[in-house]
Amino acid sequence: MNSMIPVDLEVMERRNLSANFKTVFRSIFTSLTLIQNIRVVAPALGYMFLQLAVMILYLWSLEKPWTSFWALFLGGVGAGDVARFPAHLLLMQPILGRVDMLLGAFVQVIFQASTVCLVSAAFRRKTVSIREATAESIRRYPKLLFVSLLSSALVYAFINLARHLSENMDGVARMGTAGSGVLVALAVQTLFLFSIPIIMHRETPAARIVPESFRAVAELPIASAIIVIVSFLITLPTTFLSLKAAMIALQLSPDFMIHSHIASTIMEMTANYLLMAGATIIFIHKIDVRRERD
Amino acid sequence: MRQARVARAVLTLFLLASAAGCSGGDSRRMYSAEEAIFKARKMNDELIVATMNPSFLERTTAAYRAVVADYGKYSDDVEGMRELVVSAQMELAELEFRAGRLTAAREDFAAAYEMASGVPAARANALWSGAYIAREAGDAAAAIALFSRFADEYLTAGTAAATARMNRRYLLTPLRIAEMHLESGNERDAGAWLDRAERLFEGIVESDSDSSLVREAHYNLVTARLQGRRWSKALDEIERMKGIYKNDVDSPSLLFLEARIRIDGFNGTAEGLRLLDRIAADHPRSREAVSALLTAGGIHFRAREFRKAEGLYRKILDGYPDAGAALAEARWQIAQIAEEEGRWLDASLGYKSIYTDFPGTLQGMEAPLRIARHFRELGEAQALSGAWEQALAHYRKLSSDRYNTGMRIMAEEYLVRALTEQKKWKEAADHLLGLPSRYPDYARFNRNCLLAASIYEKELGDAARAAEILRDCAGRHGGTDIADEARKQLERIERLE
Known about the structure:
The complex is a heterodimer.
Chain A: H1 17-33, H2 42-60, H3 66-71, H4 79-82, H5 87-90, H6 92-106, H7 108-123, H8 130-139, H9 141-166, H10 171-191, H11 195-201, H12 206-219, H13 221-251, H14 256-293
Helix pairs in contact in A: 1-13, 1-14, 2-7, 2-14, 6-9, 7-8, 7-11, 7-14, 9-10, 10-13, 13-14
Chain B: H1 2-23, H2 25-49, H3 54-71, H4 81-98, H5 102-115, H6 120-136, H7 140-154, H8 160-166, H9 173-183, H10 187-206, H11 211-227, H12 231-244, H13 250-266, H14 269-282, H15 287-302, H16 306-319, H17 325-340, H18 344-357, H19 362-378, H20 381-398, H21 405-421, H22 425-438, H23 448-459, H24 463-476, H25 481-496
């Protein structure tokens, strides 16, 4: 195999932190070099444009029934509130956050699967068109939807459980509990890291996809965790910014909510691409190769 | 083919979104209006930080005017638009008032009154504020006219209760009008308005309005009768109130009012003193206890019963250590007693202790001037010079940044007084001119240029400099009554030259 990353599979690699960092660094570096072929990032860009289109739709729609539709995503808010300035802009973040959750669970998975398909092809120096990659993703949509819904439900459940538990706490205990929810959510994301590459590369039955993803993660637990954390860290600044966005918007200008949302969307796209592409490269180069060799 | 279908779907989505955006004409207009007023309000907030910077002030007023001009025409068509436009107009008028542009503020309140036909609270506020500004600007005729219109519109038997719910101070409007008539010597109209005030308050008292409004109306009724010197009727009302309000708050208040009526209305000093004594003895922790002691002390002081007076003032010093300004007043009176009895050393120590311990009070400000005047009367030049120096140092210290703005402003005013009493005219005039930039939010200092010009012209004989100050003044306060007055004075000086 004429790959960009030399094969150096050793049992010790699982425990060696620097080797794991090297693996992640190489996978990310390779993911970035693959961008030379613009088609590879097309699905990630496509999903980002879809999110921005939803934002534009939100910004343009000030009349019923649109405002009633947006109000559905947020309890205690009426259509009238959504049509008012600056509430319209201040409510954009929580409303589009919920819309993004739905899109993330039902739609994003197709774009992620297409990315996996295109990255795999580019990594193997093959040619796959965007249309073929999308068709392949749609063909496997039921399995993709299954893992997407399962992982989303778990992440949502853990984060909400932590939030609920921390409600009656103060100071460090509150931060610790809320933080532990994020850590568990990251752990869930790590466990599901290879589920999409597995669906796209193997004809695994739906019931065995999750266990196989867990097994793949178990082979390279540190590298898997690092790549998830790196993508999480990329979105961290805009996440923190969005926490204070409403306050900043009221100080500067409510239009800041739009800028904050666009910045978050771009960073999310970047993190998502690196996560999917990096996971695919690690999967092909380390796990699949090892499996074939075994 | 599939790409074409996807493209069509995306295009349809955007067309739908555009249709939603464009078809929502009223919503979009309302949204734009809310955005415009939000930006104007933000500038208004920042204006305080920008210390009323003139160009920023212009931009802010322009932003409010744009809201009114651009969206006022939709007031009848778009739900909520009238309220928004009226809010913009009211905020513009309030901003003009804060900036000391009294003429513009009056015009803007008048415009707000006209456009607020469907917004009763704003309409009432606009009319009342216009009247208030007219009074502040010294235009008593306009103030009376506007307050009268307010009373006709909002203080009739059928509307008074609703008006009181908007703002309790509106109820005092007939009393204000009567007061202005009295100030201009028109006792007949003053009496008529006091009658009207009485009828208004009696109406509320007899109505089934909420108890706090009825209680306030009772007190207002007493005030109206006191203002009209209808002493017996005031006493009758107090007797009636005593039967209704028997609690610890009202009892001393009613006793105090009764004491004032006995003293001022019936020359019943002995009865008044008895009532004041009763307040201090039976309600020592009430708000009126210290006032009762001060009033009784004042009566004894004027009767030159200095020992009795001092005894009452010492009761305040010993029994009410938290009485604040009343402590300063008690010490001031004790120092005055010492001065009256020829014990200048005690008096001067008393005055010094007042301005050291109560620097922010009126007595604390007056004390250094009092000491200086004493030496001037005695003709002791050296002591006088030292006293003036001490007074100036005291006022300069109090006008430094470590004191609150209220105290600093008062100290600045006393500093000017100290300079003028020493006939240091140039220094006084220059100090007056420097104050507006140091206290941009204190509109009264904007008139300083007129006073400074007058000092230059009349005391220093420098008409050219006076004219220069007036020209600058007219330019700086364009559109205000200050500019009008400055131009008038300038024309007069130019004619003389």
